[in-house]
């Protein structure tokens, strides 16, 4: 572990509801800024290292679902602390070995500036490599969800896509989504905030209301 | 810089964007015209501005005389 990179020395991880930290960085598609993505949702995710097996499986999964992310108004942006040359060699290798093209850019954060700003470095795991974090950033560049996984464990990209879909449904319909929600499933109606409203809801006898605080409805 | 090759020539993407700027356009219009994501269009436009081949005027981007020369050459 890099002794200079103690937990106390690192900026804190951006929190849900906060603006995503601005950055400009070299990527496999040239220099990109966070605000290049304004107006679009963004899944900004880190991986520990190129040419490693767990990371490769994740990139294959992200590539497979990239069209679905785009259909949901969401772009993908990867990051590791490897050089841009390593990234280029790795995506070329993925295409050659697996026949899969990585069409989204990958930040080459050799100086670890972006990774540290986003709390992607966790010194108890590694002082120099990012762990597997995911930031879901909305079209106003606000952090809407954060996931962190250890080096050992590949993420479920299906879940990340579902998360984007659920957040967009929340924004569109003003609702919450239950566990495991998928597009088309019923959504949660906000519970009443007064006794009177709670009683009215119970009296209404809606079959989708199990109790005054627990009501579902079809979205739309 | 992603828009300029080591030999000084503009990349295909940069040339396509520059050609679209023959008439002023927003970043969204440029992205649609060259069939690229908006984030890529914005990055290319930013680089073209840095090397004085394009200029930004509010929400619109325009080609400069130097840009016209570069396209024509």
Characterise this structure.
The complex is a heterodimer of chains A (220) and B (73). Chain A folds into 2 domains: 7-155, Glutaredoxin (3-Layer(aba) Sandwich), CATH 3.40.30.10; 174-220, Antioxidant, Horf6, Chain A, domain2 (Antioxidant, Horf6, Chain A, domain 2). Chain A contains 5 helices and 10 strands, in the order βββαβαβαββαβαββ. Chain A has helices at 53-71, 84-98, 113-117, 157-173, 195-204, and strands at 24-27, 30-33, 41-46, 74-80, 106-108, 132-137, 143-149, 187-188, 209-211, 214-217. In chain B, helix 1 crosses helix 3 (38-50) and helix 2 crosses helix 3 (38-50). Chain B is globular. Chain B has helices at residues 12-20, 27-33, 38-50, 65-72, and strands spanning 54-57, 60-63. Chain B has one domain (12-72): Winged helix-like DNA-binding domain superfamily/Winged helix DNA-binding domain (Arc Repressor Mutant, subunit A, Orthogonal Bundle). Chain B has 73 residues and is mainly α. At the A-B interface, strand 2 of A face helix 3 of B.
Brief write-up:
Chain A has helices spanning 53-71, 84-98, 113-117, 157-173, 195-204; strands at 24-27, 30-33, 41-46, 74-80, 106-108, 132-137, 143-149, 187-188, 209-211, 214-217.
List the helices and strands and how they pair.
The complex is a heterodimer of chains A (220) and B (73).
Chain A: E1 24-27, E2 30-33, E3 41-46, H1 53-71, E4 74-80, H2 84-98, E5 106-108, H3 113-117, E6 132-137, E7 143-149, H4 157-173, E8 187-188, H5 195-204, E9 209-211, E10 214-217
Helix pairs in contact in A: 1-4
Chain B: H1 12-20, H2 27-33, H3 38-50, E1 54-57, E2 60-63, H4 65-72
Antiparallel strand pairs in B: 1-2
Helix pairs in contact in B: 1-3, 2-3
């Amino acid at each position: 572990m890099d002794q200079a990179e103690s937990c106390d020395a690192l900026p804190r991880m951006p929190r849900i509801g906060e603006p995503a930290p601005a950055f400009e960085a070299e990527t496999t598609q040239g220099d990109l800024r966070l605000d290049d993505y304004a107006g679009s949702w963004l899944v900004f995710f880190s991986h520990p290292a190129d040419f490693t097996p767990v990371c490769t499986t994740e990139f294959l999964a992200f590539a497979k679902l990239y069209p679905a992310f785009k259909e949901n108004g969401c772009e993908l942006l990867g990051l590791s602390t490897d050089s841009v040359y390593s990234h280029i060699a790795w995506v070329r290798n993925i295409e050659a070995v697996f026949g899969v093209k990585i069409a989204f850019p990958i930040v080459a954060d050799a100086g670890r500036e972006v990774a540290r700003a986003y709390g992607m470095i966790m010194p108890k795991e590694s002082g120099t490599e990012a762990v597997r974090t995911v930031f879901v950033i909305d079209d106003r560049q606000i952090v809407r969800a954060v996931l962190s996984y250890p080096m050992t464990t590949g993420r479920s990209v299906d879940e990340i896509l579902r998360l984007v879909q659920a957040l967009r449904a929340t924004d569109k319909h003003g609702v919450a989504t239950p566990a495991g929600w998928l597009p088309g499933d019923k959504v949660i109606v906000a519970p009443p905030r007064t006794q009177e409203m709670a009683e009215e809801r119970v009296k209404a006898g809606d079959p989708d209301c199990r109790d005054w605080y627990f009501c579902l409805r079809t979205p739309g | 810089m992603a828009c300029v090759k080591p030999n000084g020539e503009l990349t295909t993407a940069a040339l396509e964007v520059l050609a679209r700027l023959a008439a002023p356009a927003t970043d969204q219009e440029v992205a649609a015209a060259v069939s690229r994501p908006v984030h890529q269009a914005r990055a290319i436009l930013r680089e073209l501005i840095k090397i004085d081949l394009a200029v930004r005027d509010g929400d619109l981007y325009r080609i400069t005389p130097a840009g016209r020369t570069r396209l024509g050459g």
